[in-house]
Design brief:
It is built from eight helices and four strands, in the order βαβααααααββα. With 171 residues, it is α+β, with helices and mostly antiparallel strands. Strands 2-1-3-4 form a four-stranded mixed beta sheet. α2 runs antiparallel to α3 and α2 crosses α6. The longest helix has 17 residues. It starts with 11 loop residues before the first strand and ends with a helix.
Length: 171
């Protein structure tokens, strides 16, 4: 998602592979915020979609997030959506439209985007790339060619990302 990046041409890229119905990804947002604050435009944080089959609405959520990017509010939308993973699990796609409306986005356009599938290729491409690089759970991070799996445990993950980012930035 291009709207989530902190810089367009930074020296270090952190790919964050998220499922937008994943409670662990909501917890990971704190680490992402801290990293963005610490490194500013020296670290390009890119959200990548990896909807897991066990989350019934994750694929639609990824498409909705791409529509939020198209409407200029990718990051606020993802943050709001991840804060409501339980609600999304219980109530499904209406939650995606509610969040859009709460953020002042065009909810009708969200509905149309989900129906016409205009963001399917973006989500499918991310998912295929994730599988190709052996992402199996979320959150998973790729930085400096290293894959860090937060799906098992997020303990120490931010510190490891910082070590790699510091090495790459000072290298």
């Amino acid at each position: 998602m291009s709207d989530i990046t902190t810089a367009s041409a930074s020296p270090v890229v952190l790919e964050a592979w998220f499922d937008l119905q994943c409670p662990d990804c909501f917890q990971a947002l704190d680490d992402v915020r801290v990293l963005r604050e610490k490194y500013g435009d020296r670290l390009d944080v890119q959200l990548r979609h990896f909807p897991l089959a066990k989350h019934k609405h994750a694929y639609a959520a990824a498409q909705a997030a791409e529509e939020a990017v198209a409407q200029g509010a990718g990051w606020p939308y993802v943050t709001a959506l991840l804060a409501r993973t339980g609600d999304l699990a219980d109530r499904g796609e209406p939650v995606l439209l509610e969040i859009a409306g709460e953020l002042g986005l065009d909810a009708e356009e969200f509905d149309t985007a989900l129906i016409d599938g205009r963001h399917l290729l973006t989500v499918d491409a991310d998912e295929a790339e994730g599988k190709a690089i052996k992402v199996t759970g979320t959150p998973t991070y790729i930085i400096g060619g290293e894959r860090l799996d937060g799906g098992q445990s997020q303990d120490g993950l931010r510190e490891r990302i910082e070590e790699i980012a510091d090495r790459l930035l000072n290298g």
